[in-house]
Design goal:
The chain is of the alpha/beta class and about 240 residues long. It contains eleven helices and seven strands. The termini are far apart. It binds adenosine-5'-diphosphate.
Length: about 240
């Protein structure tokens, strides 16, 4: 009987905690910006982070591609910039970010901002919105490695899984036959994207120098991830 009561009490406690954790923002929420050049491995690390920490992933690149694909006004405005590998106007990405940050998921689970800020104006906009990260993580990868990674990158439109023609081949011929290439993953567009990245990174990293952790991203994703987690855990413990 006593045991039953104790178990019941524990269950009630778990249920109450469950409700608490669902309805209340966590005290030590992860609020993180991940940066790095095109092909630096941000997307892969973001998937792993979402899985481990349950944060809301906000990718300006993914959101913009979705707008282009579904033909919204915003997508129509962004398309030409993206196809050249140029940055889209600040107002467009700031609007996307604001909307995503206002979702219940971002408020309750914390956020992982990927692809923004890329300009000083975007840093200032985050500041104005009161969005202050507890970690700014940068993945450093040599230009020629980013070029090689992006130009061989292929995506499965069915599962969204990313493969690479040399480093991560698809498991079956059926999957291989349906893989697609991102329209800006060409040598010419990557040259521009890498150039844009270097032009903007100093200003952006400078805005978060007190939160900055720079990691060597020129390793296998499974070797990068423990270093990323160590940086996250240390930021959360502060
Ligand atoms: P990558 O980092 O690999 O270049 P993304 O998927 O993050 O790719 O972004 C793809 C494109 O979307 C960029 O080349 C740019 O045109 C646009 N974009 C994404 N985020 C921003 C941003 N914060 N500011 C301006 N343009 C952006």
């Amino acid at each position: 009987m006593a045991l039953k009561f104790a178990a019941g009490g524990a269950l009630a406690g778990v249920a109450a905690y469950g409700l608490y954790s669902l309805n209340q923002p966590k005290k030590y929420q992860l609020k993180m910006i991940i940066s790095g050049g095109p092909g630096s491995g941000k997307g892969t690390q973001c998937d792993l982070l979402v899985n481990k920490y349950g944060v809301k992933h906000i990718s300006t690149g993914d959101a913009l591609r979705h707008h282009v694909k579904t033909g919204t006004d915003l997508g129509r405005e962004a398309k030409a910039y993206m196809e050249r590998g140029d940055l889209v106007p600040d107002s467009l990405v700031i609007g996307i970010c604001k909307a995503e940050m206002e979702t219940k998921e971002a408020k309750q689970n914390g956020w992982l901002l990927d692809g923004m800020p890329r300009t000083k104006a975007q840093c200032d906009a985050l500041d104005t919105m009161g969005l202050v990260p507890n970690l700014f993580l940068r993945l450093d990868v040599p230009d020629e490695v980013m070029m090689d990674r992006a130009c061989g990158r292929r995506q499965d439109p069915v599962t969204r899984q990313i493969y690479h023609v040399k480093y991560k081949k698809p498991p079956t011929q059926e999957i291989e036959a349906r893989l697609v290439i991102r329209s800006d993953d060409t040598v010419e567009k990557m040259t521009n994207r890498i150039k844009q990245y270097h032009t903007n990174t100093t200003a952006v990293s400078g805005s978060y120098s007190d939160k900055l952790v720079a990691l060597d991203g020129n390793r296998a994703p499974t070797d990068v991830f423990p270093a990323v987690c160590a940086a996250v855990d240390s930021a959360l413990a502060k």
